[in-house]
């Protein structure tokens, strides 16, 4: 499988493939393969590819690999591990180009967090929430039509204080995107630890770092989660809607599924119509495209919305989550079992 095929699986309209995902190739190919493996819930296999990349000599690849591994950890409730990796990712590329940022006390803004509960029936209480892993203020992202496929400007390499800025990547696998990924991850990490104000500040920095399609979508996910965590469900609808509409405009299947879950949860929490249709469609697509990392979450939320099929959805959610945990490394599996965000117990 070549780089183009891996890119299509990671960011394109069809997330399915009968081919085995290759574990070799260029650093970019291995990064893309890890993204695809993680989406399918094959976290240990993804980590095998990401660990060497994050320890490699190229700061950009190291940053993207650390952010990707952090998102996989966060999806299973390992927020403290994710925070360390997101901080590592940001240190690799720095904040240059995203503006200097210090906390009011003068320290760096690298505390972490995330939010990962799979519906109102999950442990931890509160409104229905999803574990997504990005953040954005409502005013930050640009429209859903920015940077259509294949039309991103290709600039000449620019020096960034020891880093060489490559040509702009249409999917954000460049310095701008790496900074945004790290900042969004840190915002999500902060959120899980209850640091809502820090999450908001990091979200603002992420929006300043990158306003292209992938950062807009990921920003919408945690932008919505910030508002839900802050007890403002009506305010969560706008960033969730932007994420969903941007994903649909880009025909990015994996992002459509995740955005449908987030948008559905936001509508449900705000008492607005349309949540059931979005989440049920996301659950169906997650199963169809074998996106196990999203499937167990979608099924769990769908169980709260489709009462006639609630037991079916709950059974499938437990089944998929069990399979995902079997494909995680032992340390993360233990953390998932101890996490209040991952419903590994009965029900």
Structure characterization notes:
By secondary structure, the chain is mostly helical. The protein has a single domain (23-96, 115-145, 170-337), classed as Tetratricopeptide repeat domain (Serine Threonine Protein Phosphatase 5, Tetratricopeptide repeat, Alpha Horseshoe), CATH 1.25.40.10. 59% of the residues lie in helices and 2% in strands. Strands 1-2 form a two-stranded antiparallel sheet. Helix 5 (79-93) packs antiparallel against helix 6 and helix 6 packs parallel to helix 8 (213-229). The protein is globular and about 55 Å long. The model is unreliable at 98-161 (pLDDT under 50).
CATH architecture: Alpha Horseshoe
- CATH level-4 homologous superfamily: Tetratricopeptide repeat domain
Number of helices: 14
Order of helices and strands: HHHHHEEHHHHHHHHH
| Strand residues, percent | under 5%
**Termini distance?**
40 Å
Number of strand segments: 2
Indicate the radius of gyration in whole angstroms.
Answer: 18 Å
Structural class: mainly alpha
**CATH topology group:** Serine Threonine Protein Phosphatase 5, Tetratricopeptide repeat
**What top-tier CATH class fits best?**
Mainly Alpha
Mean pLDDT over the residues: 82
- Number of individual domains: 1
Major β-sheet profile? 2 strands, antiparallel
Q: Give the neighbour order of strands across the main sheet.
A: 1-2
Q: Any low-confidence stretches, pLDDT <50, length ≥5? A: 98-161
